Amino acid sequence: MRAVGLITEYNPFHNGHLHHLRQSLRQSDAEVAVAVMSGHFLQRGEPALVDKWQRTAMALAAGVDVVIELPFAYACQSAPVFARGAVQCLQGVGGVAALCFGSEAGDLSALSACAGFLRQQQATLAEGTARQLRRGMHYAEARAALVARLSGSSRLTDLLRKPNNILAIEYLGALTDLAGTIRPLTIPRIGAGHHDKEAVGHIASATGIRQRLAAGQAVEAYLPVASASLLQRAQKQRLMASAELLHRQVLGQIFRGRDALRNIVQVEEGLDRRLFDAALESCDWTDLVERVKARQLTRTRVQRILCYVLNDLRPWQLRACLDDGPRYLHLLGCSDRGRRFLAASRKQRSLPLVGNFSRIYAILKRFYGPGSRALEQALTQLELDLRATRNYSLLLPGRAGGNRHRDFFAEVLRGASVES
User: Fold this and answer.
1) What class, spelled out in words, does domain 3-104+166-241+319-415 have in CATH?
2) Which pLDDT score, from 0 to 100, does residue 419 have?
3) What are the residues whose beta carbons fall under 8 Å from the beta carbon of 103, sequence distance 6 or more?
4) Overall pTM surpassing 0.90 (yes/no)
5) Distance (Å, rounded) from C-alpha 336 to C-alpha 306?
6) pLDDT at residue 194 above 70?
């Protein structure tokens, strides 16, 4: 069975995602769509609007066949780390022939040329970008300016100013570095831009949809019917992540003190004081981020650091997860066709595939061997993923109760295959 990979957040699953799914299947001539989807905390350092199981249900209803969770250590990271982890997950599944991603350019040759140039100039760009960051320039701007100077090409510079292009280029770099057999494909992004607040026809960005929801405005026109229904139910049951509860939980972590903050990933000298002082005065999540943000700290980076603070992420834990890639695949949901694909590709799989976590310790021990470095890495990945689920549960105002270790009890969601 031919399979195409998708790298997603589905926050929430909207009409643009449906277009991407259908075009990916068509362009790759695939029968099966395999999505690697971020869990409860996302690339820009924000909690997901609704939990990973509800977003999986949206994806399955729209026609995605397999949904695999991107581990927390990769999901809440800069574009290169995010892309590499997601590609490694797709390789680990086995049997995925292509990766199809959206881009503003919609031109694979141009994106590949840019990825190749960045690879050739990696050391020079790293040194020059770091120097510009110390002067207060944002990362994307600094890199684009350096590429313009080194290449003399305005085309390459323009590519690096668009968020989906940036991710696309990182996917291409990861595919090259990891030297697998997955071939890249791209489709042009249609309608509203990645961060646009205004809709174009029936296409609105996920950012725009979330802002409309927060303002009490209707969003049904921009979502497939199943997504709209699931969001309406979540909103009615108060099972959407609350910015107010997020602010309170993060403050609680910050108020453990500056010594504790200095143990957190990316909390460099001086930032511990800045975080603590901002927490003393902030009135909400947005205000906290604004107070911490500085010339050399973008809003996105601040939000990621605050997510690390919330989840008590230590440098040694992150290194253990990133050194050799994801150590297991968490299967969140699959269709009938997805189940057949997973059965057929079993011998090509290089990572253990786990449904609910009721037997995960035994599975990992058997796969990697007791006392092995790989097993320790897998257990660290597991602890961080469990921690993210526990902490996310604290952000849901309407949560009725039950064990917060939901990963141990939630069954793999089942969806009927949608025929194209």
Assistant:
1) alpha beta
2) 46
3) 111, 162, 164, 165, 167, 168, 186, 187, 188, 189
4) yes
5) 39
6) no
